[in-house]
Amino acid sequence: MLKKSLVVLGAMLLSCSVSAAKFSEGEHYQLLGDASFNAPNQVVKVYSVNCPFCYKYDKSVTPGMVNNLPKGVTFDAYHITTKPPFGAEKALVLAYAKTQSEEAYKAAKMAFYKHYHDEKIHFTTADEAIDFGLKAANLDKAAFETAKNSPEVKALLAKWDQGVAVAKIQGIPAIVVNGKYLINTKSIRSMQMLDELVAELVAK
Questions:
Q1: Which of 74, 142, 162, 202 makes an SS bond possible with 37, Cβ 3.0 to 4.6 Å?
Q2: pTM across the whole model
């Protein structure tokens, strides 16, 4: 009798485990349709340094998610140009910084975040925003002026702005898998749940 009960209990636990691993379209994710873009085997975060929730994600969610990505899956982040204030100028600095080094990009990104959300300081001009970002990334202003309209920088900004259509669906930060599955972030209850959902969508 005890053995039979254990078998039944084991079957119930297995059933719960399988059920918990299933995610449904509409509840946990949605298809992007016309807003989709080419990013196979990749998780993309659409964001802006002007977004407070993006800042929170960058500090507490993104690092763990990136570390737990399935083998062969890469991560990228698209900073859109459309969210004020000075979203286009900040994106331009970040794009230029990224073409120089990942360290320069991260330094400028975190400086913009902290300046706006922690210190509550707002730039009064576009040049002020640009100069601040370049200084934070330890990048030369003259070199920036020469390279800001380069094909490399323009191509990166164009790629990032594929996220504008995505941002209109449910705001930012937006997490997109394979360029076509948008995670409904409000449905996520834990980091483990996010990792499992990403893994399932990557495999689709």
A1: 162
A2: 0.88
> How would residue 22 be classed by pLDDT, with cut points 50, 70 and 90?
confident
* Residue-by-residue DSSP string for 42-91: EEEEEE-TT-HHHHHHHHHTHHHHHHTPPTT-EEEEEE-S-SSSSHHHHH
Q: What would the pLDDT profile of 31-69 be if each residue is shown by its tens digit?
A: 999 999 999 999 999 999 999 999 999 999 999 999 999
Q: Is the peptide bond before 173 cis (omega within 30 degrees of 0)?
A: yes
Partners of residue 143 on adjacent β-strands:
none
Q: What is the pLDDT of residues 143-173, one digit of tens each?
A: 999 999 999 999 999 999 999 999 999 999 9
85 upstream amide cis, omega within 30 of 0 = yes
Separation CA 97–CA 101 (nearest Å): 6
How many residues are there in the chain? 204
Nearest in space to 165 (alpha carbons), one of 34, 19, 43, 44 = 34
Tokens of 96: 């230029």
Burial 124-158 (b: 16+ CB within 10 A, else e): eeeeebbebbbebbebeeeebeeebeeeebeebbe
3-state helix, strand, coil in the chain (%, to 5): 60, 10, 30
Q: Provide the CA 75 distance to its chain's centre, in angstroms.
A: 8
